Amino acid sequence: MAKLSDMIKKALSEDVSAVIAAPVATKAPKAEFNGAKVVMPSVEADRVADYAFIVKSLRGGVLSAADSKDLTAKFKAVGVTTDIEALLPSGFSGTLIRDIENELNVAKLFPMGQINGGTAHDIIAINGITAYLTGENTDGTDSSEAYMTFVKTSKKIMAVVRKSYEAVNDSLVDLAAEVRYELVNAIAEGIEQAVINGDIAATHMDSGVASASSKKTCNGIRKHALGKATVDFGGAALTEAQMFAKIVEMQLAGGKYLSDMEVGKGNVALVVDNYTFSKFRLFDSFKTLDKAGNMATVFGGKVDSVFNIPVISTTLIPSVNASGVVSATGADNVYGTAVMVNTKMFKLFSNGSVVSESDKNVVNQTMLWTSSLRFGFAGIYDSAEGTPNTVNASYKTAVIGLKIVK
User: Fold this and answer.
1) In the chain, where are the structural domains located?
2) pLDDT digits over 19-77, tens only?
3) What residue spans of 14-88 are helical by DSSP H?
4) What SS3 class is residue 308?
5) Is the distance from CB of 231 to CB of 399 less than 8 angstroms?
6) Residue 158: which H helix or E strand, with range?
7) Which of 336, 349, 95, 118 is CA-nearest to residue 218?
8) Do 214 and 190 form a contact (C-beta atoms < 8 A)?
9) Residue 281: per-residue pLDDT
10) The whole model's pTM is what?
11) Topology given in CATH for the domain delimited by 219-346+393-405
12) What angle do CA 65, 97, 199 make, to 5 degrees?
């Protein structure tokens, strides 16, 4: 009995919880994560992926062993060590359109928006809401609101690249990099030409423009300015003071759209040809700004200016005659051009993204690659419902300087 009593005492002294069953779980246990860290692709990796897409397309969807080896080396060079088969895209990366935008110069003044199919319509205030003085217990004065519809139309430009079978077989991956570079430059220059020199009239304002030229895509800043306001630089050599007096005259011709208030907001830019830019550069008043508002951000801080107006030079403005257009008589095209523009009053937009396709021509044994982009450009007051892409001279959002001696 003594022994049995000792056993009972020992059992009672032990932790009772050890012998009680645990309750049934009401939640599934979380699985332990053993996966590899996900690394987001870099811009450089996206470009290599674009090369891979080009190569894969030209190979009929299957990479050769040599292709895989070359692509693996390029991916490793930008820090990607994953199996490249998992990285091969079914189309171009978003880096392609960003690289196109980065290649822009004048068109970069107008950040590219996007519409998705069809023709977009935006409501633009002509006269908005106004605050009036109002007495106590007196009805307020109604605003004289007026609005218009800004119509965004777009057209397509396309770049075509052909490479021989022999070139493809020699080094397809390196060739893919070259093709991508060519496509980026071609689309970017097409946009630049349209934004600067565009004219949708049946007969282009400049002589010798082909019907399929990207200059027929939209009305550019030269076309808009010629239809709004012009300033005659006199057709003679000007001193620094005389030249800058003409710049002031351009600003005054633009009224509120090119005023010092708009300049202070970073909304005004002066676009000139390279010859005119070279003349400006010799003047003491022409300085590089440390701060140039919005424009300094757009152009990486390297902005030259007159009266705090950023000056952007381009090789795409042609030599023109006294009327500001390219004449069929070559001897008349001896003048430079300056366009002062309120960049907030114009919109550049793409309709969708870049479309790229490939094919082969067995007759001449070449590989064919195409890239296209639908886009448009217009002044917000120059493309109204019922009269889209028509320059409205009532709004002096752009002014052009004529007869500038080179």
Assistant:
1) 43-86, 219-346+393-405
2) 444 444 444 444 443 444 334 457 887 887 777 777 776 666 667 777 777 777 877 88
3) 43-58, 65-77
4) coil
5) yes
6) strand 155-164
7) 349
8) yes
9) 83
10) 0.78
11) capsid protein of prophage fold (3.30.1930)
12) 130
